[in-house]
Amino acid sequence: MTEPPQTAPTLLTIGYENADLHAFLATLSGHGVTLLVDTRERAQSRRRGYSKTALGSALQEQDIGYRHLRDLGTPPGIRKAYKLDKDFGALKAGYTLHLATQQAALEELGALAARERVCLLCYEADPQECHRSLIAARLRELGLVGAVEDLTVTG
InterPro entries under this entry (predicted)? Predict the structure, then answer.
């Protein structure tokens, strides 16, 4: 008897822009997230509770793991240009070139998604204006994940 084909895992994404920390954590818990993967180049935030150490502690209280994959963050030059002109097409072009050099990080993320219910984190509320959508698309192209579900924090 042959084994049924393995289906690629669903990948979740979330942004914390304008999100209350308690509602953010409730959203993750409500969707069964077991590991939050931070895709910010620098895991710092002016928003209380969203810097690496504080966020990791808050997640641990919810039995959610935390992993910072810095290599998947937007390089500073690309990020600074985007802040000036808000041209997502330019960000996409630059970030896609960067992402092409990050095969090890992508494979690590794919392996994590195969073992855990993973959610990618970045700042922007709209995934279509955030590099996490480009990461998710690349993982799908590589066959490392199946569906992608973008979570919205409510409350």
Answer: DUF488, UCP024492
